[in-house]
Amino acid sequence: MIFDKKILKSYIVPNSETKGSSPILRNPEDIETLEFKELSDLRTIYDVFWKSVREAPNNDFLGYRPFNEETRKFMPYQFISYKDASIIAENFGAGVVQVKLDRLKRSGATEKEIEETQARNWPVGIYSANRPEWQIIDKGLCTQSLYSVALYDTLGKTAYEYIVNHSSTTMIVCTLDKIPKILLSSSRIPNVKTIICIDPFTESNYVTNNDPTLTIPSPFNIKSVNILKSWAKQLDIDLYDFNEIQEIGKQSRIPHFPPKPENIYTLLYTSGTTGNPKGVISTHENYASAAVSTYLSRGFQMDNDDIFLSYLPLPHAYGRTTENYMIVMKGKIGYYSGNVGRIVEDLHALQPTYFAGVPRLLNRFYDVLTAKTINLPGKEGEICRKAVQEKISNLHKGLGVNHKKWDELIFNKTKAMISSKLRQINTGSAPLEPRVCDFLIVSLICKITEGYAMSETSSTGIMQQGVYISNGDTGIPFHGVEVKLIDIPEMNYLVTDLPLARGEVCMRGKNIFGGYLKDPEKTKEALIGDGWIASGDVAQINLDGTISIIDRKKSIFKMAQGVYISPEKIENVLIKHPLILQAFVTGQSVKEYLVGVIVPDPETFIPWAKKLIQSQTHTNTESYSFETLVKNNLVKNTLLADIESICRETGLNGFEIIKNLYLEHKPFDVETNGILTPTMKLKRFDAIRYYAKIIDQLYNENN
């Protein structure tokens, strides 16, 4: 294995290389030990929260935008302090314990059942979009050593029922619109005996930061509430609202019951690409370690004046760890107004200093900002293009992101469209195109870092650190995390490959989960011994000690000629084509070639396709729709030929190039066709089923 010591960014642990495994990589600050040099007293999420409450009680903590019924608009952000949130949280946690005990005593429970409840460490479901109460509930449960089970709709219509039953959840905290759904499915989730509504049951207390068009009843309907209460009573389900639980907790005077590091903090269900969701068991140590590690790995100092916009779903590890990190910072968290279409408006209203997103959203920022700059017609667009080119050139020369002339003329204005205070964007879940990344850095005058992690690693693992420009890597290990690669002989990825070691990414540290709930087989597949987790992702270690994700192990399949195919590797090449938005590549074990389903990018594809047809057939295409253009054979065959050229240029083998394609005008998504996971990964087997007839048709055409 070759490293360039002059530019080495990771620490290579001496004599750690073994047969089939690369040397172990660490953060350069972790040469002597993986123990944290700072904040070592934060061993649980309870510690994380209550330390910030003690040290910054009057700091603004959680904010939302109330909806004004008269103007039909969202108002400016309103915040509550750390101290006020802590009072609500501890009362809520005590109230949850009290109503569970009351229910058990009322129903004639055994002494053992009551003792088990008093011993804590039992689950409570949270079924809500991001809002301040989500965070308060989470921290309230921590005060009583209870753990959250995250419920959400995007896993599928019946997935929440599976999660409730699989996790043995008896109590669900949810928004008003979820109650009818829970009551309707009560016969299929018989363990649920208590529902706590986050929205108050009294009109005078009713406020929401969620889009009223998405709430049932909207925004408040006392008659509907009474119907729900009556319905729940008939089903022998206790129904409370948030304020009632707080008051019960206040009156109960139940003291804090702090968790130990080894106690469960949360049960997150990964969407997965096949089968039922897997319950990731994560402890307080896992997530406290993740929050501190994120703080230590940021690459520049943030402080308690920092502000973060919450929109990443809290049922996901990425969203949870990011918010816990902000609590370590004693910073502000403002919640989005419930609709991703209003994210830019929310950002402008909140003026955050820090934003964590995914490439899909950052691509939207790119579209908005390029429309106002480099894509403008005439002289104005020409000036903007010159400014962007000059700033990107300076950026890659190491001259930083600031440019007095161009910032004053152009980029202070583009930055203000998102947030004038923005200092850093973090992105994960998928690669961000370098051209998009460079443009956003110079137009928003901020740092952008990419990272790689998993739910099973509490959303910490590998991240770009310090001020440098990415060359397509995802960075170096977080503080407290070790990384190595292991051989995947069936894919011909070996740690002995030259010049760069390649193999499956494995990680180790206090952030690594304890296993999958009630699934020893899958736990054994993931936890491979000595504290290591095998990720299922393929990476290479670069000359400078950074790590680049290059492939996915779990999606490989064998073709008729005996070669193994990694469709994700091919898809990652295809989606870099300017005309392609999404790609799905597949094959069959009885066939010797691949086919694909391609979703073109309408912004670039429509004008290109119209121009192509006009130039080749002299047809007026002005009225041609997107749907009409994707069905055109000339368009399809021209794009297929272009794809072949690009695939060969990037070094793909002949058997890795698709020989036929279907152009799809409907994007892959979570809800409509259900072939993406909530983290926007392709559910490959669902896609195969969804496009089964089309795949057969593509093979029949070629035959």
UniProtKB/TrEMBL annotation:
This is AMP-dependent synthetase/ligase domain-containing protein. PROSITE patterns: AMP_BINDING. PANTHER family: AMP-BINDING DOMAIN-CONTAINING PROTEIN-RELATED, LONG-CHAIN-FATTY-ACID--COA LIGASE. One of its GO terms (molecular function) is ATP binding. It comes from Smittium angustum. Gene3D superfamilies: N-terminal domain of ligase-like (3.40.50.12780). Keywords: ATP-binding, Nucleotide-binding. One of its GO terms (cellular component) is membrane. Residues 123-517 form the AMP-dependent synthetase/ligase domain.
